[in-house]
Write a structure and sequence with these properties.
This protein is α/β, with parallel strands linked by helices. It is 52% helix and 16% strand. The longest helix is centred in the N-terminal third of the chain and has 23 residues. The chain is globular.
Amino acid sequence: MLKTSRHVIEFISGMAFITLSRRMGLERSSQFFGNLFTKIGPRFPQNKIAVRNLTAAFPEADEAEIKSLNIEMWHNLGMFFGEFSNLDRLRAEADTRINISGWDLTQKTFDEGRGLIFFSGHMGNWEVMAAATQIFDKDVMGVYRKANNPFFEKWITKIRNKSTVTKLVQKGADGAKNIIKTLKAGNTVCVLNDQKMNDGAELKFFNRRAMTATAIPKIARKFNIPMVFVSVQRRANSHFDVVFHPPFLPETTEDAHQDILNTAQKMNDILEEAIRQQPAHWLWLHNRWK
């Protein structure tokens, strides 16, 4: 009962901010909440995780540099919140707001009919990746983690179905079956592969050992599915650069276990390189190395 009451209070408060965001419109909302989050974000208990992660990832940075990165991270997260509330508007204006590059090689691979796995991380506005992949496949499947609050879960799913992906599947065993079915049909799957997975493998990420998801590399290897890293870089006024990097195949030697680990490590390395290009735009609040 107490948990349900807390969820209701959270939802009512959240919907008040969402209503305000909708009334402001896409750009004004992004700017307003970006500025707001720089003020209130550092006061949250979770901010300690971000500062600790930034300090460990960039040992050469002094205290002032870490503080600046931390503030900019909150600014990006606030802009994301304002944009997510207006995701349908962002999608409707995608032709002018989302600049796509590198899609020619990916298009060629997609046309082979083997399906594609697009992966990225929580960078910039990570919902943009799913919207951009519709250039290849109108029935893109997005893999996501269920929200803790069931009321928000329903709203978030509705927004995503309407604005970014037509199909959604939760992480887990049932989700894996749907992923395989989608790929076998020659369609595409989008996944954010930068969160901690307790049942994954301990691999290197920013020179530290981090529990890393291996389900996607395992599926990719089993069915020889091409993988494409998609980077999303934020520009001014809710505009974005989406880059489809060259497709690559998972390792397929006689040692299946090591192949999966090597492919997962490659994904970590690619993500890390992209994050280092715009470090303040990644979500350092993840307790990735605990």
